[in-house]
Amino acid sequence: MRMRGNSAAGNPADLEDLGMLQPPFSTVALGVGRLRRPTRRAGGLAAALVLSGCLLGPEKVELNLDIPEAYRAAQGRPDAAVPALDWWRSFRSRELTLLMEEAQTANFDIAAAAARVLQADANARIVNATLLPTVGLGTSATRTRPATGATSTSGTGVDRSIYNLSFNASYVLDFWGRNRDLLAAADHSAIASRFDREVVTLTALASVGNAYFQVVASQDRLRIARNNLAAASRILKLIKDRQTAGTASDLEVAQQESLVATQRAAIPPLEITLRQSISQIAVLVGRAPEHFAVSGGTLNKITVPRVTPGLPADLLNQRPDIRSAEANLAAANLDVRAARKAFLPTIQLTGTNGWQSAALASLFTPNGWFYTVAASLTQPIFDGGQLFGQLGLQQGMRQEALQNYRKAVHASFSDVEQALVALQQQTIRERLQAEVVRTSRTAFDISEQRLRAGTLDLVTLIQTQQTLFSAEDLLAQVRLARLLAAISLYQALGGGWPPAAEPPV
After folding, report:
1. pLDDT digit string (tens) for 7-31?
2. Is it the case that residue 465 has pLDDT exceeding 70?
């Protein structure tokens, strides 16, 4: 007999196969006495083995992954500069390194993820308890007096005492391995929780890096805005001097005043971004914003590291979200196996051993010792479709876990491709924008010199100012975008990679 499992396309399992497995025999309870007809026992065991052969067949899950041989946007050797475990140090910022290290120990999301790991481990211990016997100690002391009308001879009630001390044990034989499958599923869930913690850690570190670069970029843009405001104010003074001399009109003064006001109005939004980013970092490192400060600096002193992505197949082991989805898929597959085995008989052993006596002084005498041993076999016959419903539920959850795994794999390849393209193009854009700033600065300096000499049209001067101011601010934004792309690439690659093993000599 062969069971048909789920296919890669997500078709549900054919539950009609399980309809052939409805047991034809009722619940069997084995008492203390010996079985006098071994042929029945052998027949029952043979039937159970037939059932196990149908239900315990291999669970096959088709992944159908499309793994490319290389990234389209990758350049050079794929493993020339894979990220190190402490990848944030490659930016060469001491303050950023300190913030990253503080976030790893004080971030609230990371701490909550670590607590979920403890929960998963505790759940695995709970499931593991089903594989072990349950042993308990029971004691009781009872004193009774029957009613007078209940006595048969004297007509008076007599007080009676019964003292009891016993040990009881119960054990469910995991003959089919259902509890072992449930334990393995719980272990995989605990493993998934550890990878989930790594996902949270990587996300928190990336958030710290992004917020820190926002702080530094805002400081750069504030310096640029203030320098541009000073330059525009200086030009305004020159124009007003010319107005006094009669060589400049009110319109030209108003135009320059408008440019000065525009530069002054650009400062408050940058202050908002700066202060909000600092507050964001404070929360990420587990501190109150009122007691937290960031020195920052300039983007020009932050190194943009060279990163190579390795091979796409390596990403399956490096991305914690992929590893988490893989562990969840394995757990779901084991849950399906356990749901199939729920159709099989349950064998339970119970026993009680202790002392019982009417007098406390004679409780531990040989005459007070007793024991009870029992074995039972329970086979479900009709449960209103509950077992079939549980099996269908677990199969559906496995299909969901399968699709989540496939999505995580393919989305990871897309994340790396997007980050590679962004980092490469932002690098090119920064170089080109730096050239724009250089030429705009040259044009502005020449315009200011000619203005002082009285040989420049004021319209041309205002245009060169606007071009320079916009170019400098845009360059700071492009540098920020390049650093954010580098952070995105590290995050897409799963953070740092362990060092490669040395080749054997």
Report:
1. 333 333 332 333 323 333 222 232 3
2. yes
Q: Determine the Cα–Cα distance for residues 139 and 135; give it in Å rounded to an integer.
A: 14
Half-sphere exposure in the Cβ direction for 397 (13 Å, CA):
18
| DSSP codes, 7-55 | -TT-PPP-THHHHTT--SS--EEE-SSPPS-HHHHHHHHHHHHHHHHHH
Kindly report which listed range (223-227, 240-244, 482-486) carries the lowest average pLDDT score: 240-244
Q: Decide the pairing of beta strands 346-357 and 369-378.
A: antiparallel
Phi-psi region of 423 (alpha: psi -120 to 50; beta: other; left: phi over 0): alpha
Q: Is the dihedral of CA 37, 39, 45, 50 positive or negative?
A: negative
CA angle (303 as vertex; 297, 305 as ends), nearest 5: 150
**Secondary structure class of 114 (helix, strand, coil):** helix
Whole-Å CA distances, 215 to 221, 271, 298: 10, 10, 9
Instruction: Identify the CA nearest to 235 among candidates 456, 442, 476, 473.
Output: 456
Name the packing angle between helices 458-492 and 178-245 (round to 10°): 170
Q: Give 291-341 pLDDT, tens digit per residue.
A: 899 999 999 999 999 999 999 999 999 999 999 999 999 999 999 999 999
Please count the residues of the chain: 505
Write down the pTM of the prediction. Answer: 0.81
Cβ of 198: how many Cβ atoms within 10 Å? 18
Q: Is residue 72 classed as helix, strand or coil in its secondary structure?
A: coil
3-state secondary structure of 171: strand
Average pLDDT of the segment spanning 276-283: 96
**Predicted pLDDT of residue 153:** 53
Distance CA 451, CA 457 (A): 8
Helix, strand, coil shares of the chain, percent, nearest 5, are 60, 10, 30
φ/ψ region of 106 (left if φ > 0, alpha if ψ in -120 to 50, else beta) reads alpha
Look up residue 438 and give its amino acid: R
